[in-house]
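Apologies for my clumsy wording, but can you show me some protein sequence, whichever is easiest, together with the matching C-alpha cells, please?
=====
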Amino acid sequence: MARQQNEGSATTFRRDPLTPGLRVLGVAPLAFFVLHAHYHVSQGTAGHLLWTCTISNLLLAAGLFLGLPVLIRVAVMWLILGLPLWTWDMMEQGVGPVSTFLTHVGGLTLGLLALSRVRAARRQWAYAFIWYLTLQLAARLVARRVLNVNLAHDMYGGWHDVFHSYWKFWLFMSSVVAAALWLTGLALLRLFPPRMNRSRQGSCDGDNVSPQTA
C-alpha cells in the first residue's frame, strides 16, 4: 500500500507525451498574456498581471510547451474560478480591453481542451492552492498596494464592516479559496476522470491509486 502511494506521488510532476498540435496551442495563451501585459504596462498597472487568472495563462502555456499536466490542471482551475469574478468586474467597471477577454475566455477554452487530453487528478486542488498563496505573496512584495492584487494588501469592499483585522479576513478568504478549489477539483474529476494506466492494472493516470488503496 505504501509503495503504491509513493509511486503515485512520484508521478505528480511527470511529463505527458502531448501531441505536437496540442503543444503548439501553448503559443495562444502565451500570446494572450503578452497582449494583456502590453496593455497594463502602457497603463502603468503592470502589477495587475499577477492576478491568479491572468498569469495562469502563462502557466498554461508552460504546461503545454513542457508537457506537464500538473501546470495545465492548476491553470484551468484558476481560470474557472476567475471567470465569474471577472464577469462581475466587467459588469461593474464596464468593458475592458480585448486582451482581458482573451486571457479569461480564450485561456479557459484552451485550458479545457488541454484538460480533456491530460485529464484531472485527485490532488490538483492542493497545488492550485499553493499557486494562489505564492502569487498572493508575490503581489504583496511586488505589486503596488493601491492595486490590491489578489487581495494581498487589504480587504475587499464591504468586508471592512465584517472584519476589523486584515489577517482575520485573510484566514477566512484562504479557507473559502481552499474549499472552492476542492469543490472545483471534484467537479473536474467527474468531467475529466483519469484514464486507467495500462502499465498497472487498477491504477489511475496521474495518481496511480489502485481501488484497494484509494
